[in-house]
Write a structure and sequence with these properties.
The chain has 75 residues and is an all-alpha fold. It has one domain. Helix content is 87%, strand content 0%. The protein has 2 helices and no strands.
Length: 75
């Protein structure tokens, strides 16, 4: 019985780590996208309209990452 519980625990931790990695990769991609937008729309008022929703998503990702870091004792 203990092995099964331990196995389930490891599977859960593995899934959390995979989620964390996905969040890190998504954050990196979105930060790069923001940089590209700022370069391509340097003199445009539209750049803020485009980047604000992306910045909001980055903020949500950081929050999700923080929760997983605490849960997985990564901090």
């Amino acid at each position: 019985m203990t092995n099964m519980t331990e196995m389930e625990s490891l599977k859960s931790e593995n899934q959390k780590l995979r989620n964390y990695i996905s969040l890190v990769l998504a954050e990196i991609e979105l930060v790069e996208r923001i940089s590209e937008i700022k370069q391509n729309f340097a003199d445009s008022a539209d750049s803020e309209l485009i980047t604000v929703p992306i910045m909001d998503r980055i903020s949500k990702i950081k929050s999700e990452k923080r929760l997983l870091q605490e849960n997985l004792n990564l901090t």
